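Researcher: I'm preparing a figure for a lab meeting and need a structural model of a single chain. I don't have an experimental structure, so a prediction will have to do for now. The sequence is pasted below. Please return the structure as C-alpha cells so I can convert it later.
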Amino acid sequence: MTESSHESHENVPSRQRRRFPGISSRAYEHPADRSALVALRKLTGFDTVFKALSGLLPERSLRLLFLSDSVRVSDAQFTHLNSMLRDACYILDLEKVPPMYVNQDPQPNAMCIGLDEPIIVVTTGLVELLDEEEMRAVVGHEVGHALSGHAVYRTILLFLTNLALKVAWIPLGNVAIMAIVTALREWFRKSELSADRAGLLVGQDLRASMRGLMKIAGGNHLHEMNVDAFLAQADEYEKGGDLRDSVLKILNVLPRSHPFTTVRAAELKKWSETRDYQRIMDGHYPRRDEDKDTSVTDAFKESASHYADSVRGSKDPLMKLVGDIAGGAGDLGGKLRDKFTGQGGGGGGTGKGGATDGSQESTSPEDPEQGPQEPGSAGS
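Model: Understood. Here is the structure written out cell by cell.
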C-alpha cells in the first residue's frame, strides 16, 4: 500500500485547484447511481453479508496477482502517478489513499475493485495514451469510485459475470444470474457517469476531461480530432435514425459495462453547465457526515424525476414517442406501426411528429464495440 491511513496528504495540487473538505459522494453521483447506493447503504447488515462472501470472491487472488505481476505506484515507482493519486485524494478529502498498480496491457483501461479495501489498476495503454491533465481526470475518476464505495459492487459484478459463464451449461442456471448482471450493468453504467464527474472535480479542467474521452475513442491522434465535432457525434447519435435505430441502441448498450464514449462526454459537459456543479465549485455541497440522514425515498424520487426529465428532453425517436404517449398524445399501436413503417410523416395527429421524425437520418456507422468491457475504469 502506498499510504497508511494516518499519513497526511503532503502533496498539494500542482496548480491552484479548489479542495472539497468532507465532501459526500452524493454531491457528484448520478441520480440513478445515488438512489441505488443510498438504498444499499441503508440495508441492515448489507456490508456484513457481502464481506462474508469475500471467501468466495477472487479478491485475495486479484491482490496477489497485481502485487506479483504489476508495478505498484509509489514514491519510487511511477512517481508522477503517485503525485496525481495523492492530489486526487487531497481534493476529494479521501483519508486513506488506495494502492494503485500499473499493469502491462496495451488496451487503455482502469478499474477500482475490492471488498475490504479498494485498489486502483491502470494499464500501460492508458498511461501512454493520455497527457498529465487527462490522466489526472482519470485518477480522479477512480478515486471517485473509491469514495462512492463502488468497488464493492463492481467486484461482485465481476464475480457474477465470471460465474454466469461457468454455469451457462446448467438449464436455467444462467438466467437468474444474468438477470442480476443486467441490472448491475445498468447501475454500473450510471456509476461511470458519477465517476466522470468526480474526475472533473479533481482535474477542474473540462477540456482535459473531454480530450481524454476522445482519445479513448479515437486513439493518440489529437491533432486529427476536435472536441466540438466529437460532441456533435453524441448529438447525432441521440437524435438520429428512427425507432429501429433506437432499438439497436438499446441492444448495443445492454452487454456493456460502460456508456458509449461520446455519450459520456456529452453527459459530463451537460453536468458542468448545471447549477449543481457551480454550487460545488463555490463550496456548497452535501457533507459526508450527513450521509446517515439521507432519505431512501427522496433519493428514489430524485432518480425517478431525472429519468422523467430525460425522457421529456430526449431527442431519441423512441424516447420522444414514449414522452408523447405519456402526455396523452395518441395510440401506442398506431404510433409504433407508423414509426416502424415510415408512414408517420405527414398524416394525422397534431402535426408535430411527422416532420421531425423523418427529417434527419443518421449517417454514422454502427458502433464497432464488440461486447462488454472489463469492469472498471475511467477512461474506459
